[in-house]
Amino acid sequence: xxxxxxxxxxxxxxDAVNWALSRKIPLNVFGLGSKSSLGQAVSVEQGLDMSAxxxxxxxxxxxxxxxxxxxxxxxxxxxxxxxxxxxxxxxxVDLSVILNGKEPSNEADGTVGGMIAAGFAGPRRIxxxxxxxxxxxxxxxxGRAELFKSGGKVMKNVTGFDLSKLMAGSMGTLAVxxxxxxxxxxxxxxxxxxxxxxxxxxxxxxxxxxxxxxxxEVSAAAHxxxxxAARSGVDLVAxxxxxxxAVRVEGPGASVETRCASLRKLLAPFGELEELHSxxxxxxxxxxxxxxxxxxxxxDTTIWRLSVPPSRGAHIAAAITRECGAEALFxxxxxxxxxxxxxxxxxxxxxxxxxxxxxxTLIRASDSIRTTVPAFHPPSPSxxxxxxxxxxxxxxxxxxxxxxxxxxxxx
Amino acid sequence: xxxxxPDADVIxxxxxxxxxxxxIVPGEGVIAEQNELSAYESDGLSAYRQRPMVVVLxxxxxxxxDILKYCHANGIKVVPxxxxxxxxxxxxxxxxxxxxxxxKFNQIKEIDFSNRCVVAQPGVTNxxxxxxxxxxxxxxxxxxxSQIACSIGGNVAENSGGVHCLKYGxxxxxxxxxxxxxxxxxxxxxxxxHLEAGGYDLLGVVTGSEGLLGVITEVTVRIxxxxxxxxxxLLGFGSSEQAGDCVGGIIDHGIIPxxxxxxxxxxxxxxxxxxxxxxxxxxAALLIVELDGPQVEVDLLIDQVExxxxxxxxxxxxxxxxxxxxxxxxxxxxxxxxxxxxxxPDYICMDGTIPRSQLSYVLRRLSQMSAEYGLRxxxxxxxxxxNLHPLILFDANVAxxxxxxxxxxxxxxxxxxxxxxxxTGEHGVGVEKRDLxxxxxxxxxMKQQQRLKxxxxxxQLLNPGKVYPTLHRCAELGKMHVHNxxxxxxxxxxx
Lengths: 411, 495
Ligand SMILES: Cc1cc2nc3c(=O)[nH]c(=O)nc-3n(C[C@H](O)[C@H](O)[C@H](O)COP(=O)(O)OP(=O)(O)OC[C@H]3O[C@@H](n4cnc5c(N)ncnc54)[C@H](O)[C@@H]3O)c2cc1C
What we know:
The complex is a heterodimer of chains A (411) and B (495).
Chain A: H1 10-22, E1 28-30, E2 47-49, E3 56-60, E4 65-69, H2 74-83, E5 86-87, H3 96-100, H4 112-118, H5 125-128, E6 135-142, E7 147-151, H6 163-167, E8 175-183, E9 185-186, E10 190-197, H7 201-212, E11 218-224, H8 226-229, H9 235-238, E12 244-251, H10 253-267, E13 272-276, H11 278-290, E14 301-307, H12 313-323, E15 327-331, E16 336-342, H13 347-351, E17 359-364, H14 367-372, H15 381-394
Parallel strand pairs in A: 1-2
Antiparallel strand pairs in A: 3-4, 4-8, 5-9, 6-7, 6-8, 10-12, 10-13, 11-12, 14-16, 14-17, 15-16
Chain B: H1 8-12, H2 14-24, E1 30-31, H3 34-37, E2 54-56, H4 61-73, E3 77-81, E4 97-101, E5 108-112, E6 117-120, H5 126-133, E7 138-139, H6 152-158, H7 165-168, E8 175-181, E9 187-191, H8 202-206, E10 215-222, E11 224-225, E12 229-237, H9 240-252, E13 259-264, H10 265-275, E14 285-293, H11 295-311, E15 316-319, H12 323-334, H13 336-343, E16 346-349, H14 359-373, E17 377-382, E18 387-394, H15 401-418, H16 437-440, H17 443-456, H18 474-478
Helix pairs in contact in B: 9-11, 10-12, 10-13, 14-15
């Protein structure tokens, strides 16, 4: 077993990649390992541990910009931000909850570099954008063992190609980030959630659509079938004994109260209403964000995350649940579907998606499934070819996390 | 401005090329008459001009694909062009190049309220999208001042901004999908009506790629419900430091206004003379702060911002009470460029971004430079996100004024980078800032960006000579210099 390399600064990181390149030794790049079971199961023995490149380098709250070394633990960033009542507005998903059975909390596992590389955003995605929308710039070592940077440390910048977007969701297959700059935003003063009980899925999607399309600035809209709602830690949700559709508004107190009242009027025709205030609202949305309802499901349950056009959400989910005993949870007003289903039935999921329907990511599965089923949605042949050319523009010898995103580049 | 050496062979084959293009796009879609070509000589950066070899105006994606296939097979360069309002020379033609105009792609293909998006052809204007969905209370958020003219395809290519991007993002944050045709004619769809595109975020790099990666033939954008109310606040200050402090104060307070603009004395006077927006003339800096959302929230925040402003020494404060008044407040700002055009025969508009904390220093330096170069400079400024638009006033008929203006502009941009900012916040690099890229990026930084270009266009036929100061051949960019040998890092920790 080769020794894991653990560079402590950018020069050492460059040396490490250079050494691997010169010997064509593939690297398994990781931060704190919180997502080590996410993505394609690949066996790359040589580790590159990024956790020693840690620390916030600059944070100017009134600039809304924070720069940190890529290995900085997320919770460190989250606590620095919360001291100034700011946050990462896209609500980073804490995948440790379903991957590693962690309890949901305000302190996510993992490093900021890992969060960007995986690129999973939470409920506020519909209002504030995703991880990709908040990465302003970075420094990295490419698979060519060259240091490069892209973007900047200001909020508005169109100088050169926007490689920051490419880093988000690339699963460390293009370059090893050493430093990242992210955009941060003030935490809304108040949060409230209106719950509608007992809707079936198509009606729930229609209710969410009405809410999100209203002028009331909804910041999240989710739907939980009864069996999922029953596992919530929030009494009003678990105790409802029915499916729960939830719509959140945030902002200054007086505004939240008014909008909440307007939403109640809008949603009243759909069913029984309830309301969650501050603490409970926060707790509920953390559960939705992390899909924590499946934290303790048996290991032969696979968990998927589908990004789809909201209007297709109910149809796609129904096509899957009809076939097997799957549970579906909707977020992003129906545009995000989390699914839990028996692992023997995994083929149904991607078969339910037409070409224009978005894509499905396998989040959690047993090792045997993870070695045979592509974790990330296989792109069309032309897109796959372009993606391969992009990969080799950054990592021509395929030494960075080979196969972790697309099985074909492991070859 | 040095452009890639025109290919004499290609120019010699012009007639044959025109015929071939006419085969693909019949009728009036191929423009080859010299006097008609002159309309395409420049974009919004009119100081740079070049007559294109030929202009082609296709109407379908299949035609675009055939044009590119033909040009690719014959080694002919192609310059995509939208409405030609770009301010950095991105659509500047090439003497040996085909200018491919998307003006005939002017249809909205689908309005999809259930997925909150619009699918449009690239030649639809920015405002055309908002207009098409206004009846249901929706709009498309990014609003460049050129929105009545500029095309959505050009917006995607430039990643354009506007006065509302502090709260609502740039183009890149509002695009869901594109169809592009690559230089070899291949048609690819990136993204769609879903929020996360999956895999490498190629949509993210195509956005803002200034026509270097592919020709955009369809765009899917997110639309938003219009805020229930919007009110604007005019705040005047005795110094730009105080105005800058006020901007910081507003954000520190947790308020993200819909718009947060600043104008300096020159800009205030020029616009007030032109538009009569009612701006105070006895202040050194003016802020326009727009708050939008539910009425209660807007009223509350207007009070809070007024309070913050008076704490920063505001000498003037006026909140709009009617929609007409709000629009009048904006009319001044939105007409700042033409207003400056009235007081000077020519002007160039710079577009650097700086960390806001550097604002007063940068403004002080700007007025020193203005004296050094003997040229007036008016400043309008997207204050919320630090994006400066210094307008340098000059007269092209006076010997060497253009050169002085350009030198002044370059120095401003270098200053932006030196204080931690960037060369361009929304107008793009194009040819204008191409040779300044080295101020911000190392040779390795730029080479890595260009390798991405090679993945899309290995022969570098699409819009060459833009954005990057040196054209490297892709084969050369792909070469590796691997240092072989023993571990070069004895002190690298491992365990
Ligand atoms: C008065 C005025 C005010 C302005 N205000 C703003 C502002 O507030 N904010 C802002 O961001 N910009 C502003 N601009 C700049 C300009 O309007 C924008 O950059 C706009 O997006 C350009 O769109 P266009 O259709 O005119 O593109 P063009 O100028 O035709 O082209 C711009 C670039 O995009 C490429 N391109 C165009 N269409 C396509 C396509 N379909 N596929 C591939 N590449 C393509 C071209 O090759 C070129 O590189 C302003 C310009 C003017 C004249």
